[in-house]
Amino acid sequence: MAQSLITSEIDFDADGKQAGYLRVPHSVHRSAYGWIPVPVVSIKQGSGPVVLMLAGNHGDEYEGQIALTKLAQDLVPEALQGQVILLPMTNFPAAETGQRCSPLDNGNLNRSFPGDPGGTPTQMIAHFIEEVLLPGCDVLIDLHSGGSSLFYPATLLRGQGWTEEEGATLRALEAAFDLPQAWVFQGGGGPHSTARTAMGAANRKGVIPVMAELGGGGSVTPDILSLTERGLRRVLHHLGMLPAYRPDAPRGTRALHAAGSVFAYEAGLFEPLKDLSDPVGTGEVVGRIHDPSAPLRLPVDVISPYDGIVMAKRPMAQVRRGDAVVQIGYDMPDLAPQT
Amino acid sequence: MAQSLITSEIDFDADGKQAGYLRVPHSVHRSAYGWIPVPVVSIKQGSGPVVLMLAGNHGDEYEGQIALTKLAQDLVPEALQGQVILLPMTNFPAAETGQRCSPLDNGNLNRSFPGDPGGTPTQMIAHFIEEVLLPGCDVLIDLHSGGSSLFYPATLLRGQGWTEEEGATLRALEAAFDLPQAWVFQGGGGPHSTARTAMGAANRKGVIPVMAELGGGGSVTPDILSLTERGLRRVLHHLGMLPAYRPDAPRGTRALHAAGSVFAYEAGLFEPLKDLSDPVGTGEVVGRIHDPSAPLRLPVDVISPYDGIVMAKRPMAQVRRGDAVVQIGYDMPDLAPQT
Amino acid sequence: MAQSLITSEIDFDADGKQAGYLRVPHSVHRSAYGWIPVPVVSIKQGSGPVVLMLAGNHGDEYEGQIALTKLAQDLVPEALQGQVILLPMTNFPAAETGQRCSPLDNGNLNRSFPGDPGGTPTQMIAHFIEEVLLPGCDVLIDLHSGGSSLFYPATLLRGQGWTEEEGATLRALEAAFDLPQAWVFQGGGGPHSTARTAMGAANRKGVIPVMAELGGGGSVTPDILSLTERGLRRVLHHLGMLPAYRPDAPRGTRALHAAGSVFAYEAGLFEPLKDLSDPVGTGEVVGRIHDPSAPLRLPVDVISPYDGIVMAKRPMAQVRRGDAVVQIGYDMPDLAPQT
Amino acid sequence: MAQSLITSEIDFDADGKQAGYLRVPHSVHRSAYGWIPVPVVSIKQGSGPVVLMLAGNHGDEYEGQIALTKLAQDLVPEALQGQVILLPMTNFPAAETGQRCSPLDNGNLNRSFPGDPGGTPTQMIAHFIEEVLLPGCDVLIDLHSGGSSLFYPATLLRGQGWTEEEGATLRALEAAFDLPQAWVFQGGGGPHSTARTAMGAANRKGVIPVMAELGGGGSVTPDILSLTERGLRRVLHHLGMLPAYRPDAPRGTRALHAAGSVFAYEAGLFEPLKDLSDPVGTGEVVGRIHDPSAPLRLPVDVISPYDGIVMAKRPMAQVRRGDAVVQIGYDMPDLAPQT
Amino acid sequence: MAQSLITSEIDFDADGKQAGYLRVPHSVHRSAYGWIPVPVVSIKQGSGPVVLMLAGNHGDEYEGQIALTKLAQDLVPEALQGQVILLPMTNFPAAETGQRCSPLDNGNLNRSFPGDPGGTPTQMIAHFIEEVLLPGCDVLIDLHSGGSSLFYPATLLRGQGWTEEEGATLRALEAAFDLPQAWVFQGGGGPHSTARTAMGAANRKGVIPVMAELGGGGSVTPDILSLTERGLRRVLHHLGMLPAYRPDAPRGTRALHAAGSVFAYEAGLFEPLKDLSDPVGTGEVVGRIHDPSAPLRLPVDVISPYDGIVMAKRPMAQVRRGDAVVQIGYDMPDLAPQT
Amino acid sequence: MAQSLITSEIDFDADGKQAGYLRVPHSVHRSAYGWIPVPVVSIKQGSGPVVLMLAGNHGDEYEGQIALTKLAQDLVPEALQGQVILLPMTNFPAAETGQRCSPLDNGNLNRSFPGDPGGTPTQMIAHFIEEVLLPGCDVLIDLHSGGSSLFYPATLLRGQGWTEEEGATLRALEAAFDLPQAWVFQGGGGPHSTARTAMGAANRKGVIPVMAELGGGGSVTPDILSLTERGLRRVLHHLGMLPAYRPDAPRGTRALHAAGSVFAYEAGLFEPLKDLSDPVGTGEVVGRIHDPSAPLRLPVDVISPYDGIVMAKRPMAQVRRGDAVVQIGYDMPDLAPQT
Known about the structure:
13-stranded mixed sheet, Aminopeptidase, 20% helix, 2 domains
């Protein structure tokens, strides 16, 4: 198999705190020998689990980028058992410009795994993560938010587990992260996953993956950021990597399966009639699409085909056919936080 | 003085409800004889005040666009005394594309008054409003929000009045609109105003102007939309134009003067430490700017030079030097709603 | 083989008339869970041939888009024996913007077969047509025009047939469509075709394909549109699918082989000396390229290396080296319409 | 008054044939001391009228650009009495790129008179024509076509004349040009014209102006080009400037007043039901707008508010609200060519 | 007259070293209350001349930007008599993006004086410099280079002086700056100047202006940067503002008048046959334009209409009609440095 | 294997001088049947080596484009033994626009081998060169320069040779070309090369490849162009193909291995402290990055991790993290020119 052309400025085997760049070769008009600098931090002390934390997988998702930057500064190797590898701007060209996808190749990194070592920058980054970084890891934490076009309460995402044991491990990580909401995928996962996400990559490499959706709308909210930072430390403590950390009492997580998204079928301005966590019945109107360019034209109702609660909503007022305006979930049979 | 080249499809002198377009001539590659269709609605019955309502003055401000569209449909001439003229997408090219400024000429309509009949589309629209529409009006209600880059609680904006009488009129309109927050300008106003805003245009023409900032961040929130729709009806009732409307009890308005905005001096991701309505002291840190591209570089504090409360905040995580991250206000001496 | 990620909102096995969308997943900045809505209509009654009709394969070709939209409305299942599947905007992003190729990925759909289920939107659409739709079809009718850069008289395109029987079937379809001109390909076709066109896809799946070139220049002409609508009904009648339709007398088709295109070798403005159907001799000047930026510079002659008649012409006055200015064809030995 | 910064490489007072450039200073990134080369040709012999001929006033109108280029080459000073000044690419940046308006400043030259010597390139060109060239001229011939978005039969445009004598002169020029159609403006003209067109500029300077609309749709048709070249020579002969030219018999002109344009009010694909010169009655449907993205949605009729014939049509299938789809004219009382 | 809306963060009347920003209000989509930060530094001690130094007037001219940044750091108020005001990125949006003109408004600042307080950002900056800054200054030093499209040896630019006394002052400044080449303008200058340059603004305000052209081609060369830094200190010393500075011996300046520029008349790749300072005779070939897209087409000679030496050359290989390829100058009668 | 869709207008087997185009099919909006015209010249006489010369592999590298154009005109078949095939604008769309990479597909041709016959235009060109042209060649000469972002003295690039014999052949070609500098790669080469460059393609096909870096910065310098033209003739003479050519005495080549590039880690303006050929020690400061937008912020030193001399430098003043500012090389053990 072709090897990655990406080189790392830091030595992943060395103890201590290192920061540098993954150099993604990018020979272009303004820089013939240039490379894209993907920032990377390793904090390592002795033996213990290796946790890879990603933020900026989508460039317009900011809480994770800030949380990992603060973690990079605050975490001291002396307090750690094991290794934390941080990529606070994983798809750097996207994160630099605040776009979901890379402006260099339109690449949506989380639809690009397993990547291609001879492909575009986004594909090269995906390949490096799947083939170089993940094989040495135990846990992947991939921090997302709803991006520019969705907004989630602080939500943990995970699979149900490919095996009984993996399911237990995932439930324990969910409980440790202790976010108010969880979205539990049905099906998928496992070593034969064909998913093009970082989570799929982790499954293929036998790494335990969790994701989080931490707000969105292109904003950062103090509350969600605080839950994120607390959750990351709780998870490290849960994994035995931050022995001295003293977690407060867990607040509990409402675990949901996704029923589906409700979509706009006309272009216009969306007037929401439901907010986050509101219950929605099948056939209920969740919003209306107005057309101020023809002010006397009646609005078009947007009707939910699902029964459940609003898991996520679209923060952008303008909609077009095919845009998800809300996502509907329903409670899993067992709601109790698994601590 | 040169005359406007804009023609109206509706007759502003006729009773009843009419909808049509202001035709802004725009001879371009894809349409040599084309015009830009600025939607306009007139609802008129007998004599009484003439109120011009604008939304989409900035194209990325949506609550007003929806509120005026709904008003255009719901208001029946039979219930009205006087005339309501509605421009739900005032700077149509901006509103169509969801941009603050027009994509045709980069024009910020609310910095373009008194406009120019031989200028760009934005300038032609400004001129038409100031020279054709406003001279026949009594009151201007210009509905804004914080747009893509700011977020306000539902806020009434007004001057203090050029005369004692005008001040009383404005205070009464503020009370009638009954939004939770008001921003009262100090100074300005009057027939010699040089302000380039629609409010300045109204002042020059002897029309009583109020504005509103109704949320922002490119979103629509059900609560603010509801306050807006309620407020518009209350104002029409207050003006004697909707005699049959029965307003509920006023909730009161916190009236503020603006102390100033606090600005970013570095590029990066802004972590807010204050939320709307939080008190802020002079010299206090209101947020920090992080640089995930150099993860070990310490964040830069953003410090308030003002004492007061957070009137508005920036919802975009990415900042550059010169961006306002919060606006600070302080309570006016007299907080009581003036009903 | 990887499966298509495209889902259909309609059930291709159900009788009656259904309209909905093929949902092409497209996770982008403005819509993280969004999909591209490719409109699709199925009209089905009992058993009989299954005919797939495409328009908007190239987005700047309009007659077919209108003809299929009208057919979708006019055709009632009760009158039909078999099934008609209509994709009036096959490469929807291209058709929405009036571009030959998709603005999302620059994809020329008719050079993208057999497509890729994990590729760009254009590649995903090609794959869905070839692997999901075509295997259930008997006949493909792919409606084109000359697009923005060419103009054809209403022209039927077909192969000569991979077998004697297929040749007869194709000649009969040509006669049934009854357009004034036909362009008959030499060679190609068959189950081992490597052609990247929809016609190639059909050949690979054992589906009988015909195309049509229906005008062009970005325009719609009433005459060609009328010939198109008439031809589609005649073909359905010919296939036994519209038993009650009463075709008028056939007008006959002039069948041509293509000799080749004549190309510009300089940039400038092309002055045509020949019009559609004009005879052209080898070595004859078909037009001149002028350079008004150097007005005394003599024009450059464009000379035909072929003998025949003008099958198609370029409607754009501006040319560059490598642009086809006319296409030359010559009569097939047997000119008689094959009815 | 500020003077033009444009310099001419040719001497307008000299006899003979000269070609060169008007140098429009344009100091930009790729050329700090650069100028825009507007090609200009002067052909002069002895005394006689001075005729300024413009083409490429709109850059996507091609017949005139070719006709003036050919005239520049074919006309010999020895055969001429007086002077012909040719600007075959008047708004050069627009003509070079085939755009109606200049890509440098979005300037529509024919909406930019009287221009501004300190303005954008388009404004500088307008000013030079009005203040430098026209004061020395007797007749202006401004060659247009429908551009990319309209198509006209070969049509002469003229005013009715500010004085009786001017009216007669204009009628005679119309007859001399001998195009099949004429569009005679009602009102306007004269030394106090405020029109922003080249024709307005000519009127202000006491120069007799005629325009022509010569096809369009971005194409060149041999017939219209031939009528143009013939007409220009006939006009020069009529003015006594080409004494040896022997015109053939006039074919006659159908002179129309414009009733108005008919506009699209929805976006979609326009299906024309009328062609050039077809009669249209008030209230008659001239076309329908289809929406293939919602194939079962019924088309919207486009209805003429005017009685008359189709003077011009839109060749672009895609329409939006505000686009003219046909222009309607009606016969002037006196149809006879005035020779 | 309308006042500038630009505010300064620093107090120009205060002693000591201050750095801050000129805030140019710019209310746009991504920042409704934002401003453009034009960096400004004032270094002041006691009384003495006030010198305004500009760099980044054109954004792609870099030596001056670096030289003023270094000067801002190195100059201590204690060593100074008088005041130095530094604008190292005068047209900040242009300098930030490395473009000659502002990406916000295409404004070429040095063609925008006297500016407009209600205009575009570039016009607002020009107005602020002319109306707010220059009236308090004695000397203007405007540091340019050839930008992206020209290359100059280190060259002082000045007028000949509106009065005898001013001429002497200018000659003395040229000698003090001591660059190897000087370009002395003929004519122009004085209080009635209509020049749109910063130099014109200074002349209108009675401020003594000199410019410099310091290399170019988008590069920075150590030698020219060193000459620039030395020259600035020499000038301050010459003005009595840096009494402790000890200049080395002057090296002398070759003073030239400009004969004119030589222009390309074809597009292609320019092969220079002359280098900087080479002598050129009238009618001599200074280069050839090749067209590799038609490799057997003979090159076109570029011929000088002037006699003299090469003052400046174009560093970009690609040329189009109207591009200056070399500028020719000739020695002034008196070459001796005027000290 | 799939075959190239590119067709050649010239016959590579014919004697004499031919010029024409490689037609790269490119069916796009403005030209449905169009092709990209890659200019090609063949000059052939009798038997002898076949040499392929490329320029415009990167479109912003100009010396080679001019040199091959002049060679195409000057070389007469009668003087030649063997065949020279010239591609003066190899990646034509890039060369036409003066960009390193193709504007059609962002393709960097020299990172695209072995190409793809069904891929983008850049990939199709790479495939044609590797699979159609190179198999018939003996020697490849690929003329580069530093492009827009680097500047090299005239430099020969070559491998050390896969075999002893190939090494000798390459040393002899270096000596024959006789440029002042050579960059000798360590490792690589041979029939199993995976390099994506034209040199890699040549190695895979058993063709002897050399490259040259001939200046850069988007400029053409007379000296380097002259060395290039002389070197090409010397190489042809050395190969026995130009028997009558009489080379002058060799001047000698300084042969270097590359130590590595030194990169910027901050954005700003780069002040170089070293010039071409200057010695640099490990840990030495080679330049400083200034930030004029914060004028009192101290510059950041750029430090060399290598010992050697400056082989190449960046001519662009603006830098970002990841840009190479200088490349460092060191002398090979044997400096003597190998003649």
